[in-house]
Imidazolonepropionase (Brevibacillus panacihumi W25), 420 residues
Amino acid sequence: MRHQPIWIRHAQQLVTLAGTSDAPVTGERMNQLAIIEDGSVWLEDGKIMRVGTDAQLAAEYGQRSGEALVIDASGKLVTPGLIDPHTHLVHVGSRQNEFNMRLNGATYMEIMNSGGGIHATTRATREASAEQLFTESKKRLDQFLLHGVTTVEAKSGYGMSLDVEIKQLEVAKLLDEKHPADVVSTFMGAHAVPLEYRERPDDFVDLLIREMIPEVARRQLAEFNDVFCERGVFTPEQSRRILEAGRQHGLLPKIHADEIEPYQGAELSAEIGAVSADHLLRASERGIQMMADAGVIAVLLPGTAFFLMAESANGRRMIDAGVAVALSTDCNPGSSPTVSMPLIMNLGCLKMGMTPAEVLTAATINAAHAIRRGDQIGSIEPGKQADITIFDVPDFMTLQYRYGVNHVHTVLKKGRVVVS
Ligand code: NIG
Ligand code: FE
């Protein structure tokens, strides 16, 4: 369907990240944003048509200005729509009681091992109707959009039985269809060993491999397959089996690695050629080097470290070692109940030693590559999907400096204004 062209004019800084669509951005290039001052973008039919200085676009499109919706971005920062490549979006309920327990000294794993944590949200999600699940998850997706996020990856994993995992993935699919934001699905049946399998975890691994993964793939409900590889959850060997099985069915591997303890997760991600390894708070130096060599993207989640009161992943070291770094909220009810990618970028600077330019690269084009969408989104270039966020700050440095505030002014998704 055709809709009115949009002309964004006079951006004080237009961050294009041009030339990054082919491969994840590494090293010193993460600092290069390809900025145009007094920048201008013409959007038409949901796509970016032309990007340049305002003088250039005025010469080419000036005669058509009457048919376009003109957005004056004077004094503002224009960036690609932010992308969140790791969330547990689809669930019901919340766990503020556990937050209070942790503030009083209990650990995340203690709570989970005593039947709370992921198990608590699983109980709630198993009981919820698809309508409830849709309504609660949609509210979160609305909030993502208000924070400038135009694409969200969403994992299942609060069912851990075939029918409830499918219920979650179908809700994610419906959200993708009905909501302005795009939702990209990951199957994460291997989120925990469900309580009913506690005494025979390998039977659950077999169930995942023999029944759940093939059925999810057959129904085309997910693109990726993820596993929580952590002591007391899934071992590296079990994780390897689960991820290899997914790959045989066309689901690309992702992994929750080295979140709580060093557990060879980064090494495993490189050995199996995962698209990304996520968390990595306790990744080993060898694992980081192996990820750089294998081209595995590090999806770092500094909000989770902050909320679990743990030391963040060493983002600085990973970039210096040549790993492509992306950032994400990890939005979930236990370890990171936030939707604020801008706050996550602030934490990237303040807790992981990343520069304001690097965190923007990590939250846009590298996040796009982490969900295999680098050719469609994540930079402002002709031919790409017209997903753009306008912030009411003069430059990308100020976006990191004035932390803890939602500076989003306008959000455009597929060439339409969806937040203003
Ligand atoms: O990425 N670590 C495992 N999964 C989530 C937390 C899920 C939850 O606590 O509900 C994470 O931190
Ligand atoms: Fe997670």
